[in-house]
Amino acid sequence: MSLISRPYIFTLNSAQSTRYRRTMNTDGDLLHTVTADNISDSRRRLGKVMVWSTALLCLALALWQFAYQTGRIETGFETWRPILFAYVLWATALCAAQVIVNGEKGKRTLFVLPAALFVISLVVFPLLFALYISFTDWNLASPNGPQPNSWDNLVQMWNDGFYWNALKNMVYYVLAVSVEYVIAFGLAMLLNAQIRARKFFRVVFLLPLMLSPVAVSWMIGKSMLEVRFGPISRLLREFGVEPSFFGNPEIARFMIMAMDAWTFIPFMMIMLLAGLQALPREVIEASKVDGATGWQGFKEVIFPLMLPVSVTAIVIRIIFKLKLADVIINVTSGGPGGATDSVTSFIFREYRDRSNVGYGTLLAMVYLVLIVIFVTLLLKLVSRWMERPA
Amino acid sequence: MSAIFKDHKADHRVKTKWWASRIAIYTALLIWAVICLFPIFWTITTSFKLAPDVMKGNLIPWWDFTPRWKGWESLGLSPRLIGEISTVREEFLKRFWNSTVVSISASTLAVVLGSLAAYGLSRFNYRFGFMRNSDISFFFLSQMILPPVVLALPFLVLYKSLALIDTRIGLILLYTLMVLPIVVWIMRDQFQGIPIELEEAALVDGLGIWGAFMQIVLPIALPGMVAAFILSLVLTWNEYFFAALLTATNATTLPVMVASQTGSQGINWWSMAALSSAAILPLVVVAIFLEKYIIKGMAAGAVK
């Protein structure tokens, strides 16, 4: 593997190779700028005042509103929205202050800062909040609001057969990615072959990815697989099989997998196709000259060269698969007997039908921890495996 | 003498083998094309069927059934009803408009924020506390792993207290967050492919870093940005989970509308088919005309 791929690195175009040289030589920025700022003290002070005053404003408003909500003060806002505005003001001031205080260097920070602030405020705060909720007995129907109940939720989770069942189903669903990968690879090879109307086939193969899972769950799950009038049921009856797609647990799970595969195979297919088209021609032709048959050429040359792309495609597909829910919610809502439940669809019903907010959030947090562990292990494993010369 | 002009036996074999492989390839292609197209064909034709057509299992329009506008009439979108006032159509158009506004704004916001971040990360070295460039990149990309359920409930509560529940702004913020990692991923790849010499020349000629970015880099990276935009558009248009939890009446998007109809007892085939077709058609059109960009976007991160 390493022997084959090495010459490929040297065929990078000149611009890219310059970049690699630079990265090796310099430790600083790739794009050097000469900064001749002389920022006056008053300007620096102005920037700092802007940030701190808006931060204080935001904090003061938040405290006031908190006091109002808990009933310590008579007057206050109806909602927390003014605090949101104050927060946005603070974020803007922080961005502006970068340039005011740091000059040229601040302009560089300004590229990353807005996105970072956006993500932090929309992920980190809600996650901390979720951590708090998950250790409460909060049910939206109960009038008391959230009451901390220490480890009760965890104990309940431990004894909740349906949650473990959903986790077990996720294992099946993730394993199904391997089959999707084989099909996607086959399709990518077909599209990469010498064929006519390549563009037509590419568009057609791409189409399922464009469709919303909800529409798919109606189009396929509820109408084509309908037992009485659905076309597939009709076809099966012609062969003398009595169709029942969502009665039997195994078949139901398979049907969900098939529908999800149908929408997402194009995703892997296109990544693999891009990989196939980037393969160095010379190597493949050399293997042909050396007398490799079609299968040998695939096994010994194409497949090893495609490994990095394959791994990327599979990892991303698995990440998407772990969020699987829409089709299940709309077609089987977890049935029969929880056989098709994914974790997401299970928690969705916990929220929707039982308003069991505290418990549902704990389940979600546990799932997040499991996912993070799983994906980290997966990436570690992959990187170790890829470094090993094959 | 005729033997001279005959191919050798081995040549025959090669020829038959070639034909066999051709036939195999095209059969496989056609079979998969049917698998991809049939559900779409079925949905669109069903929207023109009447109840008896559905029950008899008629498939091909004009041949074994006559297309009728019944399904589309239930959405108020048939030639007969298009001039009249129809509450169903208004409802549908409102959902459609919500979907359009939310997905386009979220994708635009994500592309703007994501491109800036990706450009910064591909050109400069940052140090925020202990975080170096690779950590910041990982921080952005790791958001992809975050399952929507984890955020769903905190957002429900947060939005309730901010009065953002059932508003388009709320959905836009959330969807931007959802597609941002993908945009960063695609755009980082794009910017890394642009030679730094271009910007250096611009800097020498007197532009600032932002000037160089806006006037030199952006036009070159535009196709990549379009790719990222369209991919985000697809993801946000189809999103169901958050929309189902966080909207009730005002800001409901199309997928929620479709889903709310499927639950009802005794499925109304033709109107469901019409609704589904209407929900998928915009993206089918996008796929047909902008296929190049979608493929470019998805291929961006894959090949290194």
Description of the structure:
Chain A has helices at residues 2-10, 14-25, 41-69, 81-102, 104-133, 152-158, 161-192, 198-210, 213-224, 231-238, 249-277, 281-289, 294-321, 326-331, 343-354, 357-387. Chain A is mostly helical. Chain A is built from 16 helices and no strands. Chain A is flat and about 75 Å long. Chain B is an all-alpha fold and 304 residues long. Chain B has two domains: 2-73; 87-300, MetI-like (MetI-like fold), CATH 1.10.3720.10. Chain B is built from twelve helices and no strands. The N and C termini of chain B lie far apart (59 Å). The mean pLDDT of chain B is 85. Chains A and B meet through helix 2, helix 5, helix 7, helix 8 and helix 9 of A and helix 1, helix 4, helix 5, helix 6 and helix 7 of B.
Topology:
The complex is a heterodimer of chains A (390) and B (304).
Chain A: H1 2-10, H2 14-25, H3 41-69, H4 81-102, H5 104-133, H6 152-158, H7 161-192, H8 198-210, H9 213-224, H10 231-238, H11 249-277, H12 281-289, H13 294-321, H14 326-331, H15 343-354, H16 357-387
Helix pairs in contact in A: 3-4, 4-5, 6-16, 7-11, 7-13, 8-11, 9-11, 11-13, 12-13, 13-16, 15-16
Chain B: H1 9-46, H2 51-56, H3 70-73, H4 87-123, H5 133-142, H6 148-162, H7 168-192, H8 196-204, H9 209-238, H10 241-246, H11 254-262, H12 269-300
Helix pairs in contact in B: 1-12, 4-7, 4-9, 5-7, 7-9, 8-9, 9-12, 11-12
